[in-house]
Amino acid sequence: MSISKTLIRNAIFVTADAENSIVRGCMAIEGDRIAFLGETPPHPIEQYDRVIDGSGKLYLPGLVNTHCHAAMSLLRGYGDDLALQIWLEQKMWPMEAKFTSEDVYWGTSLSVLEMIKSGTTSFVDMYDHMDQVAEVVRQSGIRGVLTRGVIGLCPPDVQERKLQEAIRFARDWHGQADGRITTMMAPHAPYTCPPDYIERFVQAAHDLNLPIHTHMSETAREVEANVEQYGLRPVAHLEKLGVFTRPTLVAHGVHLTDEEIATLAKYDVRVSHNPGSNLKLASGVARVIDLMRAGVKVSLGTDSSASNNNLDMFEEMQLAALIHKGVSGDPVAVPARTALRMGTAAGAESIWLDGVGTLAAGNKADFIALDIDQPHFFPRTDLISHIVYSAGGQDVADVCVNGSWVMENRVCLTLDEERIKREFAARFEGLLAR
Amino acid sequence: MSISKTLIRNAIFVTADAENSIVRGCMAIEGDRIAFLGETPPHPIEQYDRVIDGSGKLYLPGLVNTHCHAAMSLLRGYGDDLALQIWLEQKMWPMEAKFTSEDVYWGTSLSVLEMIKSGTTSFVDMYDHMDQVAEVVRQSGIRGVLTRGVIGLCPPDVQERKLQEAIRFARDWHGQADGRITTMMAPHAPYTCPPDYIERFVQAAHDLNLPIHTHMSETAREVEANVEQYGLRPVAHLEKLGVFTRPTLVAHGVHLTDEEIATLAKYDVRVSHNPGSNLKLASGVARVIDLMRAGVKVSLGTDSSASNNNLDMFEEMQLAALIHKGVSGDPVAVPARTALRMGTAAGAESIWLDGVGTLAAGNKADFIALDIDQPHFFPRTDLISHIVYSAGGQDVADVCVNGSWVMENRVCLTLDEERIKREFAARFEGLLAR
């Protein structure tokens, strides 16, 4: 069978590469790769299986969400505007304890649908019932970096069972779905996993040759508690446990000292910045300017839609570009170009996806098209600025992942939207009734 | 001629009243007013000229944008991510100096189109060439509180001409377009108008019985300069000049002392909070929690799309709900219910619009419908939370102002979108060439 060849022409392409180049012309896709990006197509038009007119559209790499708990869409709007502990202890945890595999399947389906419709082509998911999540990723055509997030505050036999489950999941699914699924090992957080248990995850990650993902220093309170309990702040604590001997992605990293930032830089630990969630939960404002200045790779994540409350990565890019200016008083902090790369190229690098996150010949064909024939994209001044400061997820018209179209003209081709909304609503009603 | 009667049924209505009630059932519109809101329609179905099935839609009051310079859409993305003075002096001002009436007409047309498409039904506009702005408001069906913003750093004869122009505009247009247009007097800011000139605006506002709108305390630098030049901070300065003897709306109010907040409360001065613009220009974070605690009415504005960079009021509601939590560390600060009211009821009250900003029988029929049959509006937990934390302007399906439909199914019925985009693009090219 010959490889399918598609040509997009008359379009504008934002590459999100280091130079943030803008290319006017065409992009050719062959199989799962971008074969060409430039002014004139490499082959005569008639040699392409499909030729798409990209007029009025702006193409950019698919967005990369580096921290999510997709199934928690079931808890969107369930107990907002409450103190953190009340929200967690009285709202989130009792409901999550009731989640079945079916709930996770439909919760994740709705979230993946929402991600696709708002232009996300790769996401990190840390949750339970991960086989269901992987199944949704397989069906939907999206790219997933998946990990069973383990809370270790339980008896040794339960700890052991969970660890083995995490190992089994990571081994079974790594590289599946045409390589769209990769996996990580995820002790949930320093405050939810005893030190020796974290060390066992580090060992497993070494054995499987996988990265580690964990929550770290999200709230001031958890940092204080770490110091009280272990005599160390979280970064030194995780360093001591050997976590950073593995490639590591930490979520949040809001409360960090200069010394901790230097340690993260030294080990090339990547930080998933979750501005929407950090603001909504009043966790604070991460030291993103300092992290980036120190050379730490910072990407963006939505966290779950229970604390965001949507999965629109355009909002996270915009928040990242806005809040660090406002809080630092520096109007050139986190410019649009940086925010765009945080949501694309830096995201892909942060989760070890090769050939993803920028538009270039040879890269994976993971990209989206925005409908820019709308008032808020005029005039045609700075298109990257428009993407970050003016666009929203609803502007996404088409989505392609790994060379396959998963959305065209805002219709998801891989998932049954009506059925998902119906089943999801039923699962939510069931959770309330249980 | 009998008054037209419309019935919307099978719908959900968010009233945005003091109780933030949610009504399931129907709303009847007669002429320019809401005639009924409740479970069962007051008249038999066949007595209505039009019956609309509101299933899958969420109705709420139209959003109220209390600070904008609509024509500046022509400068969206023109010189972002620059230091404030470079942006103003090298980018904004030289281009604005070239603006003609035609530019303002098409710039405002695009902005009003964008506002309608993102659910704004009333807006404050402060700019030059205001007859053009009023003309766009008249044609578009939107509600406008309009004012000629005057910079008084000019010779006495020019000052006089501008003042007379502002007076003439305010007198001519107040109450026009079926009452959809009202006017204010607007000395641009304490730092751009000499004290005696501001006093003349106060006198004119008294003579015309109109409110005053001005920029105030947007940046720390301008507050310092005010103290250096006049020996007073801006609030005391404006108080001394008699501004607050008129109903007053100030934009920004970022840098305020406790004493200044108390003064604003004493005079019932209303503050238009512009979170997006304040963050992007690195002006800082307004003391919204303290302002509201002191009893100051706080509404929301986008400012211009040169500093935002769009006119989507859903973003402003979301930012208002997020940033004050994140910066204060209090997760219950500015809850969704408050943010919704800031964008609707408090907005209308802040600009002296009676019977606007809440859904209730007897009120003006200014409302919008969101398409909530989309993933990010599931599950049906807290609809107000969904509006503030999850929705965006693109979710708006229908817009009704003063009892007339200005948008249905995302098609603007009053303005020619294609022509506006075309003419706007040409005006921008012309500005660059001039």
UniProtKB/TrEMBL annotation, chains A, B:
Catalytic activity: S-adenosyl-L-homocysteine + H2O + H(+) = S-inosyl-L-homocysteine + NH4(+); S-methyl-5'-thioadenosine + H2O + H(+) = S-methyl-5'-thioinosine + NH4(+)
Positions of substrate binding: 96, 148, 188, 218, 303
Record's cofactor remark: Binds 1 zinc ion per subunit.
EC number: 3.5.4.28, 3.5.4.31
Record bears the keyword Hydrolase: yes
Cofactor: Zn(2+)
EC top class, as a word: hydrolase
Record's keyword terms, sorted: Hydrolase, Metal-binding, Zinc
Chain segments annotated as coiled-coil in the UniProt record: none
UniProt keyword Hydrolase, yes or no: yes
Binding, Zn(2+): 67, 69, 215, 303
A Pfam family per the record: Amidohydro_1
InterPro entries xref list: Amidohydro-rel, Deaminase_MtaD/DadD, Metal-dep_hydrolase_composite, Metal_Hydrolase, MTA/SAH_deaminase
Domain Amidohydrolase-related: 59-406
Domain of life: Bacteria
Family: Belongs to the metallo-dependent hydrolases superfamily. MTA/SAH deaminase family.
Functional description taken from the UniProt entry: Catalyzes the deamination of 5-methylthioadenosine and S-adenosyl-L-homocysteine into 5-methylthioinosine and S-inosyl-L-homocysteine, respectively. Is also able to deaminate adenosine.
Protein name, entry field: 5-methylthioadenosine/S-adenosylhomocysteine deaminase
Organism, as annotated: Gordoniibacillus kamchatkensis
Gene label: mtaD
